[in-house]
């Protein structure tokens, strides 16, 4: 109880009611205008972050679109090449068959001419004999 006289001493009461004594820490509130500036700055920072994120997203979307278009173009070129190769194979097959037929026909023509030239003297003799002999 010896400490009660410190609480109720005239010095303690005077300092308590007049607040001349400073507490061990001083809490100063910033003025209201400073709070408004901080709030506006925070809002600007948020808007800047949102805009940066939107720009990054837009850039990624554009890049993905370009990559997709390139992939589609490569795929289209590959399929066009396949179609052209198939077409050439089909035409080449038909052309190959055509060339075989033409070659066989040429060989037959050459064989017929050779046969005709071999038999021509015999045919002329037979004709002369038929014409000259009267029966």
Helix content: over 70%
**How many strands, which pairing sense, and closed or not: the largest β-sheet?**
none
Radius of gyration of CA atoms, rounded to a whole number: 57 Å
The total beta strand count reads: 0
How would you classify the quaternary structure?
A: single chain
Enumerate how many helices there are, as a single number: 3
Provide the β-strand percentage band.
under 5%
Question: What is the average per-residue confidence, as pLDDT, rounded to a whole number?
Answer: 82
In whole angstroms, the N-to-C terminal distance is: 180 Å
Judged by helices, strands and strand pairing, the structural class is mainly alpha
The coarse silhouette is rod-shaped
Q: What is the N-to-C succession of helices and strands?
A: HHH
Low-confidence stretches: none
Which features characterize this protein?
0% strand, mainly alpha, 135 residues, 3 helices
Model description:
With 135 residues, the protein is mainly α. It has a domain at 34-115. Helix content is 84%, strand content 0%. It is built from 3 helices and no strands. The chain starts with a helix and ends with a helix.
Offer a quick outline of the entry.
The protein is mostly helical. It is rod-shaped and about 155 Å long.
Which helices and strands appear, and what pairs or packs with what?
Layout: H1 4-7, H2 10-18, H3 32-132
């Amino acid at each position: 109880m010896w400490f009660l006289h410190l609480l109720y001493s005239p010095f303690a009461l005077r300092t308590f009611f007049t607040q001349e004594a400073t507490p061990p820490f001083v809490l100063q509130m910033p003025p209201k205008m400073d709070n408004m500036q901080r709030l506006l700055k925070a809002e600007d920072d948020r808007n800047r972050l949102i805009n940066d994120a939107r720009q990054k997203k837009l850039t990624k979307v554009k890049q993905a679109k370009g990559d997709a278009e390139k992939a589609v173009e490569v795929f289209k070129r590959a399929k066009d090449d396949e179609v052209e190769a198939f077409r050439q194979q089909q035409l080449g097959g038909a052309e190959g068959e055509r060339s075989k037929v033409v070659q066989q026909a040429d060989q037959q023509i050459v064989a017929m001419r050779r046969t005709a030239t071999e038999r021509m003297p015999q045919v002329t003799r037979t004709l002369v004999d038929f014409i000259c002999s009267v029966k």
